[in-house]
Amino acid sequence: MSYTAPVKDMLFAINELAGLDRVSSLPGFEDANAETAQAVLDEAARFSEEVLAPLNVEGDRNPSSWKDGVVTATPGFKEAFRQYAEGGWQGVVHPGEYGGQGLPKLLATPCIEMLNASNLSFALCPLLTDGAIEALLTAGTEAQKQTYVPKLISGDWTGTMNLTEPQAGSDLALVRTRAEPQGDGSFKVFGTKIFITWGEHDMAENIVHLVLARTPNAPEGVKGISLFIVPKFLVNEDGSLGARNDVHCVSIEHKLGIKASPTAVLQFGDHGGATGYLIGEENRGLEYMFIMMNAARFGVGMQGVAVADRAYQKAVAYAKERVQSRPVDGSAKQSVAIIQHPDVRRMLATMRALTEGARALAYVAAAHSDIAHRHADEAVRADHQAIYEYLVPVVKGWSTELSIEVASLGVQVHGGMGFIEETGAAQFYRDARILTIYEGTTAIQANDFVGRKTLRDGGAVAKVLLAQIDESIEALWEHASFESSAAFQALHRHLTAGRAALANVVEFVLEHAKGDPNAIFAGSVAYLKLAGIVLCGWQFARALLVAASKRDEDPSFYGAKVATAHCFATQILPQALALEASIVEAKNNEGLLALTEAQF
Amino acid sequence: MSYTAPVKDMLFAINELAGLDRVSSLPGFEDANAETAQAVLDEAARFSEEVLAPLNVEGDRNPSSWKDGVVTATPGFKEAFRQYAEGGWQGVVHPGEYGGQGLPKLLATPCIEMLNASNLSFALCPLLTDGAIEALLTAGTEAQKQTYVPKLISGDWTGTMNLTEPQAGSDLALVRTRAEPQGDGSFKVFGTKIFITWGEHDMAENIVHLVLARTPNAPEGVKGISLFIVPKFLVNEDGSLGARNDVHCVSIEHKLGIKASPTAVLQFGDHGGATGYLIGEENRGLEYMFIMMNAARFGVGMQGVAVADRAYQKAVAYAKERVQSRPVDGSAKQSVAIIQHPDVRRMLATMRALTEGARALAYVAAAHSDIAHRHADEAVRADHQAIYEYLVPVVKGWSTELSIEVASLGVQVHGGMGFIEETGAAQFYRDARILTIYEGTTAIQANDFVGRKTLRDGGAVAKVLLAQIDESIEALWEHASFESSAAFQALHRHLTAGRAALANVVEFVLEHAKGDPNAIFAGSVAYLKLAGIVLCGWQFARALLVAASKRDEDPSFYGAKVATAHCFATQILPQALALEASIVEAKNNEGLLALTEAQF
């Protein structure tokens, strides 16, 4: 099997760290208990392992292809998508009234992880469709919801996000695509969109493009952008498909990775105008798009966890099989499997620690989202929403940054074979490289993290989390295992130091953002990484407490968790201090900000 | 121009850091003065920029190809190689008596950097040829030298290193290729070698393969390996080419990067035996191969510097051109070039600092090598040789590890365009990925660094370098600029801390290597990286002292050096503490070493 879903670790994160019991006590989630979790994950694992994982290499070797405006997905993808649709997987998290299963995000999240680990390129299509569904449910009219959402959930149709234009990447203020009202409630859309993931393909009968465009006389900048539905095929009153709309794929990109996922250049309105329908109110398009973006950003964070885990699994398999050199401790006279060598064990343990930590944090974030949506008490909802929103840029930014490092270590474990494409390790290194870029680069996440998530509330949420970390630090200290466990001591020591670094940086950001914004934003990515490291370290502290008390129930699993927590403490957490130093010494016009444009 | 050789910074490193005056005072290097340096570098720059750089993308798009045993290099490469040969570039560092120019390694090193920065795939052919020349000069008979070396230096022929076999990668004890004596002084060689860089091609009329093989009844393991010359075409007494030898390229690899460089599977002796000639003594092959390896390892370290610089230059060019978003400090009302944004400046400055630091350290190492070869005093030679040997694994391991990070940052600066292959940034990310693997993985470098370079002399060389670092720290403190310069203060503070971390780790390695080798070797890569960071930080301290005193002579250049040193101090040097922590807490059977094979 080329991918084995880590169901046991997922259930550990769901049950012990994210707190499934709390989620299943929310209104509407009563059935989402431990048995449901096990059943859903087992079924998702089967589908991912058996149907999607074998197609991953195929997608790299036979990318989706373009000819005369038609995009044909990698062989096997269309049939796999049909099975995906029939299995009801697109609807896991969406409401039952539109055909979904209405499960909590906490249970949808491992499904997303498995989907992406087994086949990142394939999974992008459902990920974008999820975003389109979210935006329609939030801002669409009831008629729009009824027209589009059930078809998207059933997998008959898929969805896309159309933001980027050649001159407007991270800077959506520069969007030029225009939408002209036709007097009948519809619009004609004209413009060029690039980097449209699964923007054209043959896996579904229709594609629902959600498109940012400007109406006539709209204000300049981001306050003049509206959101439109532009279906590939117009939809008749009875729901059947009508005329082909004037949106055409003029090319797809030749990319470093995720080659099976067609990245389209879409031309709107070259033949008279593409028919579009306004979603929600005019000029509020960016706001609605952010609904899609936030769902998608969390999803991309899970892609980071997913590709990291897949790279880890592949490296472990190779390291157990490849025999090379005698052990350095003289414990054998002949060559041994390279997993016996300390540096290979270091690489594998580091890959594992980074991946498990990122998984734990993302699942915890998912539970906050569920509580934020469903809790009976509005204040509780607000508190959890704030924490979730603080965590989204971290889940997106940190999980994807580490996925590149993990995939690179995966290549390294393979030695020379890692550089040979047929081995397959290099695909993860190439695929992962997009994750820190799309749905907002790490810098964009970090800007959000500093601006909306830290400065706006004066660091209030950050301090709530710091207080929760303190409780875990205290619990480590008070635990019966502390005296005898090197893992407890190491995690206590390094999490305490990391927590202090994070607290200092939050204060630094609050203090200097106004007076020296350049220095703060120069350190913003480091602040995001620091938060990622400390928050994942915190999850390991919580995991260690559980593992210590349950160790006898499953010595191998919990023993591995103790060792992995220990590894995270000594290999990853110390980086917090380096990140802190890189941030707090930044000043405008000094050091890295002193180089003028001409000097570069 | 897609590549502009950084001649000014190279000359700074040569003259001010490596000390060209000291090298040009050595016997035989009298002509290697500042004028020569300038002239050689200018000419190498012209050739690299004009002839080789434009072919770099071509090599990625049209890799060298195999058909029926014949390998055809990327279009344009054969003609470029002819120009390379005619320019005398293969002989820069080799002795005049065989047709070389006999220049110091200190002046050959920037040439190697430019060659690799302009075209990494192309440069591998000369790099391997250099190794073959070194091995022949060291261990060959006079007749062998006369037969092969002038032709290799003239570029009529090229050289290869044949070590790896399918079952013998890092572990050369497993080499199975056999060599049977024919009674006439020649041998028949039989076996399969893989991963042979430029192992077959059409750029030269002959290829001189240097091959590791076992003679009958040779001892097992690495003590039974001998080195053989196996030319593609046998050489007649008069030096003309004779019969085609029984060595054939049966395939070349499909690789992640360096695609223009054919990586051959060579079959020796399938048609009766490949004629080979023993070099030096039987069973000492590994020793001779290490001569090639050490030259090649330094060369691969330079490849790291080279690809990092090229990735940096490309990212700077894009960042100056791409307009996106308003400045965060409100200094402009319209969108600006992204180089104005603090996070982009952070990425570019970090790329620059890593690259310049690695360049400086490598050039300093090259000067040590020159003194070690030519100084009149044997004790001085021995001291410098010991320092050079300590630095080689650092130059190889650290420069290549950072090149991956720099190339990845280069992609990130380009945003979505970075992921599109036509942009070209992704090529560096793919190409760089081999550098930490071939000529010994980073772990192999780190093993060497711990074993042969630290333990064997009880840390003596490490302590010599630590004492020299102390002198530079003291000089920062005593400098007139200290009080007023944030760069001086930051570098003083972080270099002091980094130096202490390195010293602690050296002691830790010395103390525990025997009792807990697994822990030491689990931390060996971190020790190598720590040394790389501190030693490069030290070069920045030395550079800062020069820049402060010369600033008025060239405010832009020296001002940039001050800023870059400051950037290295706050962005890179603090990582020393994290690395120290990851090393000194390692214990066998704890943390990352506690996971059993089954638990992975």
UniProtKB/TrEMBL annotation, chains A, B:
It comes from the Bacteria. Residues 283-448 form the Acyl-CoA dehydrogenase/oxidase C-terminal domain. Residues 35-156 form the Acyl-CoA dehydrogenase/oxidase N-terminal domain. It comes from Paraburkholderia ginsengiterrae. Residues 466-587 form the Acetyl-CoA dehydrogenase-like C-terminal domain. This is Acyl-CoA dehydrogenase. Belongs to the acyl-CoA dehydrogenase family. Coiled coil: none annotated.
